[in-house]
Specification:
heterodimer, A: 312 residues, mainly alpha, 14 helices, globular, B: 596 residues, 6-stranded antiparallel β-sheet, 4-stranded mixed β-sheet, 22 strands
Chain lengths: 312, 596
């Protein structure tokens, strides 16, 4: 097991290097020169050159790339070019609001989808199953933007059940008052695809011989579904859930913008709009690292869930 | 133990007595909480380091500039703020002397180590010098380019790597504790406006040095408000500065309807009245619009997309009107135009056939459709490069480049731009003709692209639309390599020079984005710089200059936008100012009028 983990960590190094080079090339190719915006409305070539010097974008590309690599190794990405705020402070302060929305959303979405998937798979091909699947297909076909606009208008403005937008100072106030509607919207959007996916995982298992054997032994349907079927269907479910975890670090762009939640997603949009490379670099690198770490964790969890899995 | 407690008691009593002795003139009520929105996130609050509108709105409430604007007067009129009076101007507008008011104090801050810190002329000297410190890369540096001696100080800093703030500069001196003298290299009648910009509010050297690179997060000024809370890009809370000197509301009504009502409600009040200003950054207009209707915002800058719902036929809709919501509309001091790069090898130059081509392209564009489709009717067609409300505006001027595709086609036919078999025109020498037009990937720009495409196809010209990110457009523009784009300019100060300088030859590769250079034009423009803004001659010369630019087909003017502000009934004395940004220090709230 230890050897496997060490080997996987070693494999992360070239992947990380690839990410760094790719981000660097993309930014320099399409990112635009931030000095021209930072210099202001009326600026001379000399002022622009001064800003480029201070930002280090006048250096040869290989020097800039080396600086980027050093930043990745030290975890110090400097300060935002547009606001001068330390990038570490940006990440530390914006992550909390994003997680306040996305962690409950992921937990609720996974639990509800698993429960519903087991239920509809159990009554597969029935009218209920068909109605649920049609609802999922319809739900999937509607853009999240529509859900946001309609839900914000109906539930926040017309019915007044939630605030239209905002964010407070206390965790509980944010979770209960401000994050509720965004979480509901997130659930409506995410349950449909998750339910369809999990249902197929469950259907794959429900026709296996061990299920028939369990029934022959006289086990209750609840025990068969929730213990035996779910345990065997859990590997693809774990893969799916773990793949979603890095997404927590980049927030939910649209939801954060529409509900004025000061999360990472909003910060990413701002950074792109302002060509704020230090922020873009840091977030990209952290997401890449998180993706690799969560993938490793997913593999380790397979082993925990199903001892037959061999880690090589 | 007893001694320590007694000492603490005595110290507390001394502070209380001191506070009473200062006798704060302000009467802001902490229960009066104003809720505003920002459409775009602020960037910070160090006056020398920021350039965005939203940061200015906050900074103007925190920092005292020497001058400001009369709240009611239109066109906008400069009045003293930290200065005792308007400056004494001499030596053909090359020397400005300001008297700083005595008894203005900075808000308390640990950087002052417990001392009460008075604002002096030296603070303005320091604050202005900061714009030339290369470490600050101040976006508004060019506004003090004319101050004698500052450039030399900057050059020295570039050599030594350190900006010497203690070095005396001829053009920027504190003659005594309260007298500031600024000497310019050349005549500039508009320089007083620069001292009314929110960027030129006074900062204290101790504060800037104490917070170093984090000065954006520690604004300490002597203005009516101080920063109480800042959740970056999300929420800004200002509170009335308890040490603020205060002022009595005493503005004279102008010609605008509603001014007298404002005067009747506000005259004689001690300002500021509002104890707390909470600003939320709400980027999505739907969220802001619903929040306003829910009563979560007191004032809303209504964007074009919601104008047809909120203000059909330019009147507040009946539902809002019944709730007491008012509309306050101004014409923004801005200008939107499309330009041709006058140095482009194909489309540029002053040969007749090139001028005819540029004018024909401009004549193919229907501004009426642009106002309807792009602006949703929330803008007025621009005829003159100086917008209304700005000194030098000429309401009688009519453009010589009207929408006339028929005439445009005739012009092109006359100069030999023949149509090929595909219906598109070629250059007179037979080469295929395509107009390269640049824009950003935004949805607004995409709509404008479509209008331009539709327009030039009316006259048989093929368009090639290049998509670039905004910084890339600026980069190409500064190198005079961008052929055409639709650009915008908003006034920094309400004087026509701020717009006319956009076509001055030496400003090419800066903000003369058309890279237009014509010796005769430049000569006349230089003459206008020596004339007082209120002179008739300057206005005549501006008219002559613009006619010359139109004849040469450099710019196609589009519009000047309206700014529609929706105001809740509890807001008393509100009037949107075209230049002043922190109006919240001039109006009041009546909580009893809030909708339940």
């Amino acid at each position: 097991m230890t050897a496997y983990i060490v080997r996987r960590i070693w494999q992360m190094i070239p992947t990380m290097l690839g990410v760094v080079v790719l981000v660097f090339i993309l930014f320099n190719w399409v990112g635009g020169d931030p000095a021209y915006v930072l210099a202001g409305k009326i600026s001379s070539a000399e002022q622009i050159a001064n800003i480029r010097r201070q930002l280090g974008v006048d250096q040869p590309y290989y020097v800039q790339l080396w600086i980027f690599i050093k930043q990745v190794l030290t975890g110090n990405f400097g300060a935002s070019w547009s606001t001068n705020e330390a990038v570490s402070h940006i990440l530390a302060t914006r992550l909390g609001p994003s997680l306040t929305v996305l962690v409950p959303l992921l937990i609720l979405s996974t639990l509800i989808s698993i429960g519903l998937a087991l239920a509809v798979a159990y009554v597969r091909a029935s009218l209920t199953d068909r109605l649920v699947m049609i609802s999922c297909t319809v739900g999937l076909s509607i853009s999240i933007l529509v859900y946001i606009i309609v839900f914000q208008y109906v539930f926040a403005y017309k019915l007044g059940w939630f605030p239209v937008q905002g964010w407070g100072d206390s965790f509980w106030q944010n979770l209960v008052v401000y994050a509720s509607l965004p979480i509901i919207i997130g659930l409506v959007v995410s349950i449909a695809p998750d339910l369809r996916l999990f249902r197929t995982f469950v259907l794959d298992e429900i026709n296996q011989d061990y299920v028939r054997t369990a029934r022959a032994k006289g086990l209750s349907e609840n025990r068969i579904m929730w213990v035996h079927v779910l345990r065997n269907a859990s590997i693809p479910i774990i893969t799916h859930v773990m793949a979603q975890l890095p997404g927590l670090l980049i927030g939910a762009f649209l939801i954060e913008r529409f509900f004025s939640i000061p999360g990472i997603g909003r910060e990413v949009i701002l950074a792109v709009e302002r060509s704020d490379f230090p922020v873009i670099k840091a977030i990209t690198v952290y997401v890449a690292v998180a993706t690799m770490v969560f993938n490793l964790l997913a593999d380790l969890m397979y082993k925990a869930v199903d001892p037959r899995v061999q880690l090589k | 133990m007893f001694h320590r407690s007694a000492a603490r008691l005595i110290a507390t009593a001394a502070i209380a007595a001191g506070a009473a002795a200062y006798g704060p003139a302000w009467s802001a009520d902490p229960d009066k909480v104003l809720h505003l929105e920002f459409y775009v996130a602020e960037t910070g609050f160090d006056p020398a380091k920021v350039q965005d509108y939203y940061s200015f709105v906050v900074n103007e409430g925190i920092f005292d500039s020497l001058l400001t604007y009369d709240y009611l007067a239109r066109p906008a009129k400069l009045v003293p703020r930290a200065a005792e009076a308007l400056p004494t101007v001499s030596d053909q507008a090359r020397t400005y002397v300001f008297k700083v008011r005595k008894g203005i104090y900075f808000a308390d801050d640990p950087a002052f180590k417990g001392r009460r810190r008075e604002l002096t002329a030296e603070d303005f000297v320091y604050s202005i010098k900061r714009f030339k410190d290369p470490a600050n890369h101040a976006p508004y540096e060019s506004f003090v380019d004319g101050v004698a001696g500052l450039d030399e100080l900057k050059k020295e800093a570039e050599k030594t790597g350190k900006f010497n703030y203690d070095r005396k500069v001829d053009g920027l001196q504190a003659l005594d504790r309260y007298t500031l003298q600024i000497k310019l290299k050349e005549t500039d009648y508009t320089f007083a406006y620069v001292m009314g910009l929110p960027n030129f509010g006074a900062v204290a050297r101790e504060v800037i040095e104490a917070y170093g690179d984090d000065s954006n997060a520690h604004p300490v000024g002597s203005g009516p408000y101080l920063l109480r809370e800042w959740v970056r890009s999300n929420k800004i809370v200002l509170e009335a500065n308890p040490g603020y000197r205060g002022f009595v509301w005493d503005f004279q009504p102008g010609a605008d309807s509603g001014d007298r009502e404002i005067v009747a409600a506000m005259k004689g009040k001690k300002m500021p009245q509002i104890g707390r200003v909470e600003i939320s950054v709400i980027e999505e207009q739907q969220a802001a619009w619903l929040a306003f209707q829910n009563g979560e915002l007191d004032v809303l800058h209504l964007r074009e997309q919601f104008a047809p719902i909120a203000i059909p036929r330019d009147k507040v809709n009946p539902q809002l009107a019944a709730a007491g919501v008012r509309l306050n509309r101004i014409t923004d001091p801005d200008l939107n135009y499309t330009y041709f790069n006058a140095t482009d090898p194909d489309f540029g130059g002053f040969a007749k056939e090139k001028i005819a081509l540029r004018r024909a392209i401009f004549m193919s564009f229907d501004n009426a459709e642009y106002l309807r489709v792009i602006r949703k009717g929330q803008a007025m067609e621009a005829q003159y490069p100086i917008p209304p409300g700005v000194v030098g505006y000429d309401a009688t001027y009519r453009t010589s480049i009207p929408y006339d595709p028929e005439l445009a086609n005739k012009l092109l036919d006359y100069f030999g731009y023949k149509r090929g078999g595909d219906g598109y025109r070629t250059w007179p020498d037979g080469r295929p003709l395509a107009w390269r037009y640049s824009s950003t990937p935004s949805s607004r720009d995409r709509e404008i692209d479509e209008l331009w495409q539709k327009s030039v196809e009316r006259i048989g010209i093929r368009i090639q639309i290049d998509k670039n990110k905004f910084p890339e457009e600026l980069k190409q523009e500064r190198a005079c390599q961008l052929l055409s784009r639709t650009a915008s300019w908003i006034a920094d100060y309400p004087d026509g020079d701020d717009f006319m300088q956009l076509l001055y030859g030496p400003n090419s590769r800066q903000n003369n984005n058309a890279c237009f250079q014509l010796a005769e034009w430049d000569r006349i423009y230089e003459r206008t710089k020596t004339l007082s803004p209120d002179s008739v001659e300057r206005n005549q010369l501006y008219r002559q200059l613009w006619r010359m630019a139109e004849v040469n087909g450099v710019w196609k003017l589009h519009d000047t936008r309206y700014r529609n502000m929706l105001v809740q009934p509890q807001v008393i004395g509100y009037k949107k100012h075209p230049i002043l940004l922190a109006e919240y220090m001039y109006y009041d709230l009546d909580n009893s009028r809030r909708r339940k």
